[in-house]
Structures are given as C-alpha cells and as structure tokens.
Amino acid sequence: MSEIKPTDPAATNAGEEKDWAAAKAFFDSLKTRKPRPPKPQYAVTIAVSSRTLFNMVAERKIYEEEGVEKYVTFQQEHENEPLMPGVAFPLVKALMTVNSRLRQLYPDSEELFDIVLMTNNHAQVGVRLINSINHYDLTIERFCMTGGKSPIGYLKAYMTNLYLSKDGEKVTEAIEEGIAAATMFASGDVENQLSDTQLKVAFDGDAVLFSDESEIIVKQHGLDTFFEHEKEFENKPLAQGPLKCFLEALGKLQRKFYAKNERMNCPIRTYLVTARSAASSGARVLKTLRSWGLEIDEALFLAGAPKGPLLQMIRPHIFFDDQMSHIEGAKELGTVAAHVPYGIGQKYHKGELIEQPVNDVKDKK
C-alpha cells in the first residue's frame, strides 16, 4: 500500500499562484469588455441566492405545489425569458458601481467585490439564470448550483464574506459556520429610490456588529442595569458579532478610496442605526469600533425610537438587524431589510418573550 504524503502548503500555494498567473495571462490576451473576476483571497465575496437576485415567486409556487420536475421543466421552457429583478438586485448593481470606480483608480487591483450566485437550483435551471444575468449585464461569473442540496458547505470554499438568502434556515446554518449572513425581505419596488452612485449599508449594533452580551442584560435585567453595566465597562471592547467581518471588508475597500484622496467622494457609505441612547450607552460602541480599527460614516443613536423613519431618509441598499420587529418596521417604510438570526433577540418579539430561555427553564426545575 503506497504511503500518502502530507501536502506541502508552500508548494500548494506556489502552484496555485502559477495557475492564477497563467489564467490571468490567458484572459488578458483575449479581446473582451467583460472584466476578469478577482482572485478570491483578495476579493470581498458576496454570495447571493437566485431568489434574492431575481423575483422567482411564481417559479417557487410551481416547485412547492407541483414538485421539482415540473419546476425544472417550466424553467427550461422559459429559459429565454429574463427573470424579473429581486430584492438583492439593486445591491448587486451598487456593488458593480463600486467595482467600476475601483478599477478606474486601481486598474490591476484584485481588491474588488466578487458576486457569486449561490443556489440549490439544479444545473438544468442554469441556462435561464445565465440568460437573465446577461440580459441585465450583471458581472456574475462564479456560480454554485447544488441540485437540491444545501449550498452552505461551499461558502467557505468560495471565501464568502457575506451570504444573502431568502431561506432563514440556511442563513442560520451559515452563521453557525462563522459566516456573515442574513435573510433578505422584499419591501415593494424600491429600486428607483436607491442611489445608483453610492453603495449604502446600514447596520444595527448589538447582535449584528457586536455580540449580544449587552442585549442579554437588557432582556433579563432591564435598562437601568444595562446602563450601569455599559458605564462600568465603557473601556472594555464588546465582543464581535456575526457581521463585524463584513464591516471590516467594506472598510478595506473604503480605505482604497481614501488613499487616493477620495474620502468625500467614496462610493461606499456605512451607517450604524442603533436603539441605544448616546449619552447612556453610546460611548462603549464607538470605543469598540475604534479598538477594532474600524470607521462608521454615520452613527445614529435612537434611544428606543423607531428606526423606520430614519432608514427611509437614508435609503440603504440593505439594512441588517437581529430583531424582526425592526425588520418589519423598516419594510413598512420601503427599506430593504435583512434579518440576522443571532443572539437572544431571537427569543423575543416586540419586547415579549416568545421562547423561554434555557437557563430559566433549568432554574425552575
């Protein structure tokens, strides 16, 4: 029996670099207007599901009511008909706009957004998806079609920085794997209301950018204890939440514009939209971001006021929050909202306990 020798990482990396150099040389020799996809380890990879990129409500109904075979047949029969844009479509267009600006400033840079279509669709449906992407002139070259199986296992292989889906179970699975992810919700036709020159991304704080440690205190002990806790630990950075790494990736690209004296004309703008009050609990948040070496362009402390009206003014391409009550309020006022199913907030809705915490159950036994 032959001995299986361990792989030499240096040799593997050297071989990979050689392969990429050859692929780049071949691509550059071709005459095409299509930009070459960036190298994954340098790119900010956004994986979107087919149902977020395109409106597939009618097709989904066929799948649920008539089964997979009828669904695949329908898609093949209509493969020359472009699918209508979905909730993530304006976001993808904004990502492409940022890439265009980056390529103007850094023609040879690999630090770009790379959009991957990550779907459990069957390969037979791929022609319609490809035709739809080409119809709208979207720069999406990497596909992952898993034929009915969950695509979550491929996210790390694609070096995914953010995964967006309409399937909450898959999103939860991705977060458990340590990947930034959120469930997107439609909010009507908002595409024409969103900026076509600047990508706007809004984040909640606790249980999104930060861990839910402070949120636990609010839920279990009330606001006064929370305020005392935040004051006591003002200089201790909060632990990171599931989307901290995505803000970090956005910051990496923003700094490329700052280096070219383009701060005031940067096509990426980030927002913190938090229910925290500034005077009572805001300092710890800002000091945490500072300790991470991260910037946020605008910080909005609402002290418990509804987020919807401010989001209506910002008009972000996507707003991330861990609590469905905030998602619903944002949707009602036309904001593209994405739920991050993480932390203690999943046990509550509009402040009411919907699932008894495990610790409480144990205490009563």
TrEMBL record:
Molecular-function GO term, any one: magnesium ion binding
Organism in which the protein naturally occurs: Salmo trutta (Brown trout)
GO biological process: adenosine metabolic process; nucleotide metabolic process
Signal peptide: none
Pfam families xref list: 5-nucleotidase (PF06189)
A cellular component term, taken from the record's GO annotations: cytosol
Record's protein name: 5'-nucleotidase, cytosolic IB b
InterPro entries tied to this protein: 5-nucleotidase (IPR010394)
Gene that encodes the chain: LOC115160688
